[in-house]
């Protein structure tokens, strides 16, 4: 059979160019990572051909004897990694996992309480035009205007006012750990179910560097592609008592056939996440974010009007507040792009600018830690970012420093093409 380059040279070129981009720039989008070759192989395999509606041993299609093995491995590994009684690994994405969780825990019109999108929550935690905001009666909690941290007394107040059926704890842009015990206590006080969305920090949990929400929550959802560094997809963990409801919420509630090639790749990612190498990588990830935060808190950056929200980080990302800087979020993102560092602009809490512009940056270290960066390299990249955020940044010199770092840490060397 003819190779992709012959059948579809335009798409082959896209893949080639994207590989080149990933190799030659520094990836600091907090939700991204580089999957290992083993994950690419599982995901790009013949398992993509297989329909397997249902669950292992109870499928609606024949010929599932091998994909059942893959799904059972993914389930066993997910449960063992996070100490969970129950797992479901069929969700196509984090958002579809979250839709299934709400489908299982609530009825249309029920009340839900989550972190406001503008303060670091996710679309699926109650944004108006998302399924969550359309199907459920949503109220939000916010971060404290002085500390920029979630104040559990305020969460309790909001819960007592709103009386939700479901409370969601989790975030897309928040640099600190959550107090799961306090969330549990509030949920119990108001008779709500506690759902934790650990999409961002799941890798840190697997490595023992972040409290594990599983013992506290009724249900935990996650993605596999952020700190874990597996295939783009989602999964759900929970107490055994929710097994039937969650399974039926995923299939047939939300989805048809599971993506068996992706499920096999999840199994690979969960296997790797139990290794000492993975733990060391997560340690470099968190340490890298701390190095970045320390550098961006220095006087020269503060004099340029930039600061780090909450004064540091406990996780894999740093939130930069540019409200007093000459640069807005869009300009800062563009400037770093010119230098060769990819980040995303991000609204800061109480942001005066519109969501397409913003006054902040979200900068993450997981992908560079996967690339092999340690303290020395994170110190260098932190300094490049600090210099870029100061007035009159010398883009050419900074680009040369970025090029040296990316040359020193080659990516996908054993991949002949894409
Ligand atoms: N939950 C959280 C907290 C997230 O940050 C994200 C992604 O950004 C998701 C869910 C959704 O994941 P996906 O993009 O795979 O749908």
Automatic annotation (TrEMBL):
Q: Which GO terms describe its molecular function?
A: glycine hydroxymethyltransferase activity; methyltransferase activity; protein homodimerization activity; pyridoxal phosphate binding
Question: What cofactor requirement does the entry state?
Answer: pyridoxal 5'-phosphate
Which positions bear N6-(pyridoxal phosphate)lysine?
Answer: 226
* Chief place where the protein resides: cytoplasm
Pathway listed for it is: One-carbon metabolism; tetrahydrofolate interconversion; Amino-acid biosynthesis; glycine biosynthesis; glycine from L-serine: step 1/1
What subcellular locations does the record give?
Answer: Cytoplasm
Q: Give the enzyme's EC designation.
A: 2.1.2.1
Pfam families, alphabetized: SHMT
Q: What is known about what this protein does?
A: Catalyzes the reversible interconversion of serine and glycine with tetrahydrofolate (THF) serving as the one-carbon carrier. This reaction serves as the major source of one-carbon groups required for the biosynthesis of purines, thymidylate, methionine, and other important biomolecules. Also exhibits THF-independent aldolase activity toward beta-hydroxyamino acids, producing glycine and aldehydes, via a retro-aldol mechanism. Thus, is able to catalyze the cleavage of L-allo-threonine.
- What is the protein named? Serine hydroxymethyltransferase
């Amino acid at each position: 059979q003819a190779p992709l380059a012959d059948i579809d040279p335009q798409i082959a070129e896209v893949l080639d160019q994207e590989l080149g981009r990933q190799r030659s720039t520094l990836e600091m989008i907090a939700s991204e990572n580089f999957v290992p070759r083993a994950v690419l192989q599982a995901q790009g395999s013949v398992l993509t051909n297989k329909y397997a509606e249902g669950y292992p041993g109870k499928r609606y299609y024949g010929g599932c004897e091998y994909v059942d093995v893959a799904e059972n491995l993914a389930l066993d590994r997910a449960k063992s990694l996070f100490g969970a009684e129950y797992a479901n690994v069929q969700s196509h994405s984090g958002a579809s996992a979250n839709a299934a969780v709400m489908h299982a825990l609530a009825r249309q019109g029920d009340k839900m309480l989550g972190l406001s999108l503008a303060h670091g929550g996710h679309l699926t935690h109650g944004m108006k035009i998302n399924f969550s905001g359309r199907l459920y009666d949503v109220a939000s909690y916010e971060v404290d205007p002085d500390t920029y941290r979630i104040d559990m007394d305020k969460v309790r107040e909001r819960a007592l006012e709103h009386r939700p059926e479901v409370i969601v704890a989790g975030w897309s842009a928040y640099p600190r750990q959550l107090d799961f015990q306090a969330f549990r206590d509030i949920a119990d006080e108001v008779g709500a179910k506690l759902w934790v969305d650990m999409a961002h920090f799941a890798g840190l949990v697997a490595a023992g560097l972040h409290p594990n929400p599983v013992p506290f929550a009724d249900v935990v959802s996650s993605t596999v592609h952020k700190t874990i560094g597996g295939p783009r997809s989602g999964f759900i963990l929970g107490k055994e008592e929710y097994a039937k409801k969650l399974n039926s919420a995923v299939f047939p509630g939300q989805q048809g056939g599971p993506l068996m090639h992706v499920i096999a790749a999840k199994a690979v990612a969960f296997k790797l996440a139990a290794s000492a190498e993975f733990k060391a990588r997560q340690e470099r990830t968190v340490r890298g974010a701390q190095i970045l935060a320390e550098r961006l808190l220095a006087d020269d950056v503060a004099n340029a009007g930039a600061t780090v929200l909450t004064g540091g980080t406990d996780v894999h990302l740093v939130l930069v507040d540019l409200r007093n800087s000459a640069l807005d979020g869009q300009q800062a993102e563009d400037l770093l792009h010119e230098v060769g560092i990819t980040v995303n602009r991000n609204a800061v809490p109480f942001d005066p600018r519109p969501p397409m512009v913003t006054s902040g940056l979200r900068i993450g270290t997981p992908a560079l830690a996967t690339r092999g960066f340690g303290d020395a390299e994170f110190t260098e990249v932190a300094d490049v970012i600090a210099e870029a955020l100061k007035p009159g940044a010398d883009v050419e010199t900074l680009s040369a420093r970025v090029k040296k770092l990316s040359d020193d840490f080659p990516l996908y060397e054993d991949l002949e093409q894409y």
